[in-house]
Structures are given as C-alpha cells and as structure tokens.
Amino acid sequence: MSISRLGALSVDVADLPAWQHLLVDLLGLQTQPRANENDPLLIRIDDHRYRIALHPAAEDRIRAITWEVDSPEELRTLADRVRAEGIDVEWAPEADPESRNAVASFRFLDADGFPNEICFGPTIDHEPLRPGGVISGFVTGELGLGHVVLMCRKYPEAVDFYTRVLGFELSDYIVWDGADATFLHCNPRHHSLALMNECFDFNGGDFNHLMIEVASLDDVGRAYDRINAAGIDLKMTFGRHTNDGVTSFYLSTPSGFGIEVGYGGDLVEDGWVVKTYRSPSRWGHEPQKAGRQ
C-alpha cells in the first residue's frame, strides 16, 4: 500500500493576476471558468479537472500537496499508518458529487508543516484541451503531475516517514556544496518527491519547487524564450540533470518558489541501480539572483 502519483498542487496566492499572467498569458495554460473573484483559478494541463489550484489570499503559502492512490483500501490503510505516527488525520467532509474534487480524501501536516492531501478518485474533465499555445503537451497520466522538492528540518526523519509510512521508494541521492538530497519514486517517474536538508538559505518547511514535464525539448525551449523575453526571474538557467536526465530551466513564481519546466526524464524500471551523484547537473542550471523584473 503506497502513494501512486502526485495529483495536484494547491497554493494560497497574494497576487493572482501575476500568477495568471505567468501561467495563462505567457505559457498558454488553460483554466476552468470562475464564478466569482473569490473562486480559485484552476489550471488544466490534461484530463484532470485541475493540476494547479491558485486560491486568492492575503499571504502566499502552500495549501495542499495532493497525492493519489488507486483504491479506497489504500486510502484507508495510509490514513491508519499516518495516524499511527501520532499525526492528526482530517477526512474531507462528504461533498455533493457535482462539486467534489475526489471521491474521498484526507489531509495531514508532516513534521515540517507541509500540508499533504491523499485522495482516491480525482475528478476528470472530458472536455478536450484547446490546441495551441507555447507548450504542445505534458507527460502526466499514470506518472502524475510531476514532482515536488521539500526542505526538511529533520531530514533523515522525513525520509523515513515518506518511505516507511507512505511507501515511497528510493531512486538515488545527490550530495553537493553542503546540500543532501534524497530522490523518491512511487511509479516509474524517476522521482515524484525529493527531500533535502536545510541549505542554500532554505529552511525546513520551505517549498523548493514544482516540476512539470513537457512533451518535447522544443516545448522547454519555447517556454524558456517566452519567460526570458517577459523578464520573469529565473531560479536556474537552462541545463540538464545528472540523475534523472531531465533538460530544464527553473522560473520564479509570484509566490517565491520555483517551477521547473523540463523534458526527457528517465524511468525507474527493473534492474534500477541506486547511485550517489556529486553534482545536480551535467551542464547549465546556473543559479540566478532575483531582481530582473
């Protein structure tokens, strides 16, 4: 019994227009209709009702990291495991079938305060996505949304929790310049979750970045050109990772954390060998300071 994939990311945002400019105007992502200005802006990239939910708020914070499981039994088992760790579990109230985002779900805060949500039966939207835009498509499906990277105060304990309790499996490690990162998978995607120690001015509880994988290298290049032309701050320049082979860049969001736009991730298959790398990138990925806008 384990997590099956990353389902969605929900964020409280103080500057919704800036987010809309970034994701919709610049990257061409599609949104669900909003009934009023207090409703979240729901971003679609595939057949899910949404993959990114942006909630208008006074302050920026991660609202929920949503994980999916494939059966009600797995959902109940994981809830029991989390509760056995002395962590409070909050089940979502039953909602009208027309308005709910999943058949069932529960939430909890991990030791670093990250708000995790685990759900079964996410809502699917069978209206086709509009063609066109900067990005031709995304790699999702059974691999899920992409991956998230979380900074941890008690890094070894965090790795233990996500592997022993939630069932993530080890992919590999990267250790460099005082940073220590563990990469974990829950399906063939190289990693859906990476956990890191406190380093590079990040503290435990900081959300580092969300990665979304696009359908072609040209998608990465077009997005990179569009982001640079618009003067959006980069977290890291164009480059290629050592461990998962992804070619990507990192942009800075209006909420401060990064989004990695990448292509060409390796899959964890039979015979996979765990390795430790001494650099996160084969080339590129030069860190950038904010303030270009």
Automatic annotation (TrEMBL):
Q: Does the keyword Oxidoreductase apply?
A: yes
SUPFAM superfamilies on file: Glyoxalase/Bleomycin resistance protein/Dihydroxybiphenyl dioxygenase
CDD domains per UniProt:
BphC1-RGP6_C_like, BphC1-RGP6_N_like
Q: Which domain of life is it from?
A: Bacteria
- Write the record's keywords in alphabetical order, separated by commas: Aromatic hydrocarbons catabolism, Dioxygenase, Iron, Metal-binding, Oxidoreductase
* InterPro entries xref list: Fosfomycin_Res_Enzymes (IPR051332), Glyas_Bleomycin-R_OHBP_Dase (IPR029068), Glyas_Fos-R_dOase_dom (IPR004360), VOC_core (IPR037523), Xdiol_ring_cleave_dOase_1/2 (IPR000486)
Cofactor requirement:
Fe(2+)
Q: Where is the VOC domain?
A: 5-121, 144-264
Give any Pfam family that matches. BphC_D1
Query: Which protein family is named in the record?
Result: Belongs to the extradiol ring-cleavage dioxygenase family.
Would you tell me the protein name for this molecule? 2,3-dihydroxybiphenyl 1,2-dioxygenase
| Source species | Rhodococcus zopfii
